[in-house]
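Translate sequence into C-alpha cells.
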Amino acid sequence: MAAMNPSKWTFLENALIAIAFFYLLFVLFFKLEVVDEESADNALISFSSFLPIIAVKIIGLIIYLFSFRLVFITNSSFKFVENAKASFIVLPLIFAILFPELLVRLEAIISLLLLSSTLLVLIQLHQQTNAKGILFSAALLHGLALLFNVQLLWLFLFFIASIYILRGIKIKDLLVSLIGLFLPLFYYVGIAYLLNYSNYHIDLNFSFTKIDFKDNWGFISLLLLFVITAFLSAGQTFISRMKMTVRNRDQLSVYYLYAFGALLLAFFSDSFLSVACLAIIPLSLFYGIMHKKFSKVWILDSLWILLLIFYVLVDNAWLKLPFLVTFA
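Result follows.
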C-alpha cells in the first residue's frame, strides 16, 4: 500500500493543506465553544451529551480525518489514479472550515466514518462469484451507521442499487444485506428493552431543512469555489472514468450514486449538515482524481490559498482591517 510522501507534494498544495489544517485547529479549539446537539436528535446512540467539550472536539477531528484517510486507502487499493498526492484531504478540510460545527456533532462524524468504511468494503463486490461475506460486512457497517443517524436508512436504497451495478441482484444477496443492515438495530432494541430504556425514537419523516450561512463575502467566495470545484471534480472524473477499466468505472458509479443520494437526502433531512457531509466522501475522491489530471493545477491551488486567506481575514474580528470592513 502506497503511503503519502510529503516530499512529492507541490509547494502550493503543501501550503494549502498546512494553512487549512492549522486554521481549522484554531477555529475548532479557540472559536467554537458550544456543542451543537442537533445530530443527536436523529441518533439512537449519543456520546456528545456526556463527553467533555474538549473530548468531543478531539475525537471528532480524529474520526473526521481518518474517514478521509480511508478514501486515500481506497485509491491506493483500486488505483483510480496513479501516484496520488494529498489532494484527497483538500475538500474535507475546506468543508470543515466552512462548517466547523460539524466536528462537534460526534454522532454525525461517527456515521461519516462508518459510511466511508461501508463504501470501501462495498466496492470490493465487483464481479465476485461468492461475496456474501463482503456483502454482509458492508451492510453491517451501514446498519451501525443507522444507530448514529437513523435517516441514513434511506441511503440503503442506493446500497441496493450499488449491488446491482457491481454484480447484479439476487434474492440471496438482498436477504444477506437486510440481515446485516438490521442486525445492529435488533441488538440495540433488545439491549434497550433489557435495560428498560425507552427514551429513543426512529424518525424517518421528510422535512425541508433550513440552512444557515454566514453573511460575509469571505465565506461566500470560499463556499462558491468549493461548490464549483466539486462540480468540476465530478465532471472531470466522469470523463476520466471512460478510460478506466470496467471494474473502476463500476466502482466510481457507486460513489456517484452515494454522492447524489447524500445530497438529495440532506435537503429533505432536518439536519442538512449531518447528512450533506457524507457527500464529501465521494467528492474528495473525485477531487483527487481531477487534481492529478488537471494540467494547470497550480492555478487551482493558488486560488484556494488566496480565497482561504481572504476568508480568514474577514472571518476574524481581531483581524478587522479598514479595507476589509465592507466584506464582513
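Note: Residues 1-8 have pLDDT under 50 and may be disordered.
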